[in-house]
Amino acid sequence: MKVFNTALFVVIALSLVFSVSFASRHLPEERGKTLFNDPKAFGGSTSCNTCHPGGKGLEKSGMTGMTEWETPAGTYKSLEEAINICITAANKGKAIDPKSPEMKDMIAYIKSLGMGMKHEMPMKEKGKGY
After folding, report:
1. Which of 27, 56, 63, 90 has its CA 20 to 30 A from that of 115?
2. Given this model, what pLDDT does residue 4 score?
3. Which residues have a Cβ under 8 Å from the Cβ of 72 and sit 6 or more positions away?
4. Averaged over 95-106, what is the pLDDT?
């Protein structure tokens, strides 16, 4: 009986280890969050989390329908460009390939911050001329 219990425990423990490993490979937003919080991820000296604790201020960056992203360094036409300018200017790191798995993971994390938000143009109010 003791051998059976030990074997059962080993099987359960291995199942948990492999299921967590399998799940983390399939959750790009979790890999992106890890990169976001790692000061050494892109060869820089600080993490993205240093300027954006917990992703604060980036909630709208991943919204559907966005066409421009503003950073202190300027306005960019893609989220990839905005991420890279933050990596190179603020973090003093090296830009990452816009098509790389790391960039896809970063974008997945940023999009997860504003889950369900949709960018819409403001509607004109009656009597207002904007």
Report:
1. 90
2. 66
3. 89, 90
4. 97
